[in-house]
Specification:
This protein has helices at about 5-25, 30-35, 40-50, 55-65, 70-85, 100-105, 125-135, 140-155, 175, 185-195, 250-265, 270-290; strands spanning about 110-115, 165-170, 200-205, 220-225, 235, 245. It is an alpha/beta fold. The protein has a six-stranded mixed beta sheet with strand order 3-2-1-4-5-6, sandwiched between helices. β5 and β6 (about 245) form a beta hairpin.
C-alpha cells in the first residue's frame, strides 16, 4: 500500500481503503459518524482524502469496521503517519490550492485546457507576477511574490531528469491576445511557450478564434493522470473561493472526451507554433510602437 508518493496522494489512497472497509461492513457514512460521535462530513472528508488522517482516526475506524487483520491495520496506521508529512509547498506557508499541487507533484501526465491565461507550468516569472497581481488586486505584494515562487517551483516538474511531467496544453487565442502586464511581457511569454513546446514531453496546441464554438467553452479544466493504476485520474476545476475535484469514472471519461475534441479542433503542433509566433510578433510590434 505504500510507495514513493507525496502526502496528498497517500491520503487519497488511504481514504479509498477506508471507504472500501466501510462498504464491506455494509455501513453508511452517517452510521459511522453516529457511532464515533463525529460529523458525517468528517467521514466523507477522510474518505475523499481532503482531510488529514490521524492514526487515531484509523484506529477508531478499524475498530468500528471490526478489522481483525493486524497487518492491514498496521499498514493503514503507517499510511496515516506518512500522509501527515509535509509537502515541499508547506515551506511557502498557506498555499490556497495545496491539494492540487499535491496531485500535480505526483502526477505522471497533465492534459490542460486554458481559455484565459497561459498554463501555470509554462509561465515566465514576469507573466506569472502580472497575472497573479491582476487576478488578486487586494493581495499584498509579498504574498504575490510568494505565489510566484510557488508557481516557479511547480515548473521544476517539467525539467525533472528523473521523471519529467508529460504535459499537453490546448491554449485559446484569448489567452494569447490578452495583454497581461504589457506587450513586452506577452511577446516574451509566447516566445517561451514556443520554446517549451519543443521539449519532447511538452505538447502545445493553439485554438484560434476562427475555430468557432468548441467543447471547452464552459471554462478551464485539467485532467491529472498517475503512473500507479490504483490512483485513478482526477479532473480539476479551479474556482474563485473553492476548487472542484472530480474522480468518478463517468466524469473523468466525459472530460477526457471533451479534451479529445479540443485536440482535434485545435491547430496541429507545427501550425500552433507558427500561430503563436505570429501573435508574439504582433505583441512585439505593438511594444515597439509604444
Amino acid at each position: 500500500m505504500t510507495s514513493n508518493v507525496g502526502p496528498t496522494v497517500r491520503r487519497r489512497r488511504l481514504g479509498q481503503e477506508l471507504r472500501r472497509l466501510r462498504q464491506e461492513k455494509g455501513m453508511t457514512a452517517e452510521e459511522v459518524a453516529e457511532e464515533l460521535m463525529v460529523s458525517q462530513s468528517k467521514i466523507s472528508r477522510l474518505e475523499n482524502g481532503r482531510r488529514s488522517i490521524s492514526q487515531r482516526d484509523v484506529r477508531d475506524l478499524c475498530r468500528t469496521y471490526k478489522v481483525e487483520d493486524k497487518a492491514l491495520v498496521d499498514s493503514l496506521m503507517q499510511m496515516a503517519k506518512e500522509s501527515r508529512q509535509q509537502g515541499w509547498w508547506n515551506a511557502f506557508g498557506d498555499v490556497p490550492y495545496s491539494v492540487y499541487i499535491g496531485f500535480e507533484t505526483d502526477a505522471a501526465s497533465l492534459r490542460v485546457y486554458e481559455p484565459q491565461v497561459m498554463p501555470g507550468l509554462l509561465q515566465t516569472p514576469e507573466y506569472a507576477e502580472a497575472v497573479i497581481s491582476g487576478a488578486l488586486p487586494e493581495v499584498a505584494p509579498d504574498q504575490i511574490a510568494q505565489r510566484v515562487q510557488v508557481r516557479l517551483r511547480r515548473q521544476e516538474r517539467i525539467t525533472d531528469p528523473l521523471g519529467p511531467l508529460r504535459l499537453w496544453a490546448v491554449v485559446d487565442e484569448a489567452a494569447m491576445r490578452r495583454v497581461v502586464g504589457n506587450h513586452k511581457i506577452m511577446s516574451d511569454q509566447l516566445e517561451y511557450l514556443v520554446r517549451m513546446s519543443h521539449e519532447p514531453h511538452v505538447t502545445v496546441q493553439a485554438l484560434p478564434f476562427g475555430m468557432g464554438s468548441h467543447p471547452g467553452m464552459s471554462g478551464q479544466f485539467t485532467i491529472l493522470e498517475f503512473s500507479d493504476e490504483s490512483d485513478t485520474s482526477v479532473v480539476y476545476l479551479e474556482g474563485v473561493t473553492s476548487d472542484l475535484y472530480l474522480e468518478k469514472l463517468t466524469d473523468v471519461q466525459s472530460y477526457s472526451m471533451m479534451y479529445e475534441h479540443l485536440r482535434a479542433q485545435a491547430l496541429n503542433v507545427d501550425q500552433s507554433r507558427q500561430f503563436i509566433t505570429e501573435v508574439a510578433q504582433d505583441h512585439a510590434r505593438r511594444h515597439g510602437e509604444g
